[in-house]
Design goal:
CATH architecture: 2-Layer Sandwich
Order of helices and strands: HEEEHEEH
Radius of gyration: 14 Å
Number of helices: 3
CATH class: Alpha Beta
Distance between the termini: 15 Å
Number of domains: 1
Shape: globular
Oligomer: single chain
Helix content: 25-40%
Largest sheet: 5 strands, antiparallel
Number of strands: 5
């Protein structure tokens, strides 16, 4: 049974469930940042997914990256899995701007997160949900 890692629960807000993933907003106002977590129990590496699940994960990450790049006029999208702190497989989709706090360095390990205010968090969740609604991630069913 899928259970979200406690650190992810504490650091994020649920945006939606896609065909494969739970889509989360990282609670760091420095960057528009979503995290895709495959809703598969006990998976920590991409290669532990089936070939179909791997394809679905990359499709979802690509689709999310594409709509976020457009929505936020990103200079660059960072899409990565790390897993050194949170073992549960999760994929970061981070909007990068030349004027952001870490540019051009990676966001990971670069300063402390700056949580959204409650109002800003609500607005960002609404914006992210609207952006995600542009893709078929929520509606499409595949045999995973």
């Amino acid at each position: 049974m899928f259970d979200l890692d406690e650190r992810l629960k504490n650091d994020t807000v649920v945006i939606a469930d896609s065909v494969l993933c739970r889509i989360l907003l990282m609670n760091d106002s420095r960057y528009p940042w979503l995290i895709l977590v495959p809703r598969i129990a006990s998976v920590s590496e991409v290669f532990e997914l089936t070939a179909v699940q791997q394809q679905q994960l990359w499709q979802e990450a690509s689709d999310v990256g594409r709509v976020l790049k457009s929505e936020f006029q990103a200079d660059k999208m960072n899409i990565a899995t790390l897993g050194n702190v949170v073992k549960q497989l999760h994929m970061h989709v981070v909007v990068r701007m030349q004027e952001d706090a870490a540019w051009p360095a990676p966001v990971w390990g670069n300063g402390a997160a700056q949580p959204y205010s409650e109002n800003a968090k609500s607005q960002m969740c609404t914006r992210m949900r609207a952006a995600i609604a542009q893709i078929d991630l929520i509606k499409t069913e595949v045999d995973l």
